[in-house]
# Entry
Amino acid sequence: MGIALLCNAGVYNTLAHAELLPATTAANVTVYELDNGMRILVLPDHRAPVVVSQVWYRVGSSYEHNGVTGISHMLEHMMFKGTKKLKPGEFSEIIAFNGGEENAFTGTDYTAYFQTIAADRLELCLRLEAERMRNLKLDETELKKELQVVKEERRMRTEDNPQALTFEQFQATAFVNSPYHHPIIGWMDDITNYKVNDAREWYDRWYAPNNAILVVVGDVQPAAVYALAKKYFGKLKPSLLVPPKTQIEIPQLGERRIKVHAPAEVPYVVLGYPVPVLKTAKEAWQVYALDVLAGVLDGGDSARLSRELIRGQQIAAQVSVSYDMYDRLNSSFVLSAVPNDNKKVADIETALRQQLNKLKTHKISAEELARVKAQVLASEVYQRDSMFYQGMRLGLLEAVGLGWQRADEYVAGIKAVTAEQVQSVAKEYFVDQHVTVAELVPQSSITAPNVSGE
Amino acid sequence: MNMKKLITVMSMMLWASVVIAGPTIQQWSTTKGSKVLFVASPEIPMLDVRVVFAAGSARDAQQPGVAQLTSALLMSGAGNWNADQIASRLENIGAVVSTGADRDMATLSLRSLTDADQLKIALETASVILSKPTFPIADVERDKNRLLLGIKAKQQSPGDIAADAFYAAIYGTHAYASPEEGVAESVQKLKAKDLQAFHQQYYVAKNALVVLVGDVSRAQAEAIAEQLTQGLATGTKAAALPTVANKVANLEKRIAMPTAQTHILLGQAIVARNDPDYFALYVGNHILGGSGFASRLMQSIREDRGLAYSVYSYFAPMAVAGPFTAGMQTRNDQAEAAIALMREQIKKFVEQGPTEKELEKSIQNITSGFALRIDSNKERIGYLAMMGFYDVPLDYLNTFNEKIRAVTVTDIRDAFTRRVHPEQLALVIVGGAVTKPANK
# Structure
């Protein structure tokens, strides 16, 4: 679904292509729960004297309603702006002084704060995270200033990036009443009008130990981590949590098609179909089959879209598929493409839909199925190279309410997928009446786009 | 808990902390004369290999884009295989191979499981890709068109336009001046034979470096390096690049674009890898704009005034004078004010240097964070490639902290005064704030 990062190097990280793969085996994860409901997951990894500490909150843009869209992300920025005991910026200063790297990110279904630091400094991270979990200051002057920063962030990520702008409009069209309708960073007008109280209410409502998960990966012993977590988080009072309203997306009753006119040089098209996710599917196998299907289309240079659309018919210059099976709410199966210079968006749309039809009418080959499974198995090993990523998987699964054990079920789930199942999900979900299409129409205009919130 | 006190306590602990050694690096040469660097990393049954050539866009000469296109075409046909067969061979076993080129290096990266059968297929495929690419005409034409479209797409990104203009400004007629992807008029003219010629000259054993990190023995690593280089022509090492003229070609470049934000880059060509001033410049810049929230640029431009989301500066050491870059993006109507602030911060830093306190904090941060930079195979192989390619002494990682700790305020002031000239920095401004026509 994309991810907003509080980063300062202008590097845009995204989980939009998160075909997340398992990183670890359950055998190594130790789970604790404090009396106040906070969950703690520890995964020892002794390859280096380093530890990754992540605090995940079960809140993100899909918890928001109109008028305060992006408030989760705004609050993420404010979490660095001072607490009862810490001056604005002091959190970062202390971590930096101790050689740590730290940041945070907001997604549709979670907000997470992390530090990577020498293993013997873990205590410091936990102490500081516990302090800002309950004692954030939320000063009006700081908010006003930081809101300008977030507006700059939005200009950089979205307003001046025609593909991002198109994708944002796609989401707003594909989702009518689901909160996936609005962008993680929020609409410009909402950002402009945040009040301290909006952030305060959000903080009071969601930032509590019983809505948080601590994930620690690295050169640590589980029992020692638990003792430290208990020491710092154990004394925090839980809150009465009122879960967000369900807001299940209404059924789509016909094709939706929009055009986005924006200054650009190259056309771009996004197609999407409503699909279930692991959390909402009646049958888990359907979700694994959709994931395999995504791999058949877009799992590398030997996958169908690359082989047939880029190399074979030479219709596309770029093409990609994204499906996030770990979303909290019903999601979209999304295909996006840039047509070749001598082709039109209509050509690429036709070609993509032909590919989907072929999946409905013919079973995928045994070789394709085997390839996707081999890629999953290999990726599972490769993931282990990144402590951060291993923590990310565990935290994400916990935050969306699936439970970390699902990481281990992934490989088995994928292995069990059959060609018939792939065909069956293609038939069920790639229905013409359910498509949403957003087309970027490049404008070589010389006037700036009309940006709201100025 | 009093945080100030905490810092004091923590800092006392720091001086007592153990010295973290870098990984053990083994070095040798293949029979054909390629340099090899290897780090055994037995914890995970996987192997990362990179084969690096001095064959980046700095070698484009009169054909901007030829290095990029050659690199892109390697996997489109090799030996008896076409693009589909190459992709299937690798992906059927879960191996990941990619090729790419920047200004200095052209790289093939391979990641594979160390299962014997799978590794055998992955290495066999990679060695043919490197030594026997066929550059099929149809594939060349297709990828050329894709590259041309990529070059066109850059024109809708103010960040990309700014970066290209910046390199053109600071490098003038030097090989680093043109974009890594080349330029449309040159790419249009490229033919299969041009790529073939480029490959013959630069993808040769004497111009190759092999780096390996993973779960293999020294004997296996030797055999792998042999296998990957044996098919290459012996050839010769690429000539040293010409030095960079110290004066920037174009002090100010404004490019109008219908954007919500103005992108700003300020800088000059300064530092090569192995430059004796590097550590002083690196630590100094850490304070100026390289340490995220703690940096002066971030403090004054983002934290104090909310003018930008991303504001930074860095030295990027390259084979010859790599750029010092300070950059940010801000709402169009704030651009001039932000530029003035950035200039003022740089000028002040060059004139006065950092305070002792700032230096202490930066040294703490860099040295205490050392272990973080080498805690994965991916990071380690990045360091190996850098060290091997630029002939950096193999004790670089082991002596890194020591060298950082040795940097003084005087060293920083001295290095910045000699090397960074605020009045000679090129300024590139791209965005809606601009009313003047663009310089051609």
Remarks:
- Residues 311 and 328 of chain B are 4 Å apart (CA to CA).
- Confidence is low (pLDDT under 50) at residues 1-19, 433-440 of chain B.
- The first strand of chain B starts at residue 26 and ends at 29.
- Residues 137-154 of chain B form the longest helix (18 residues).
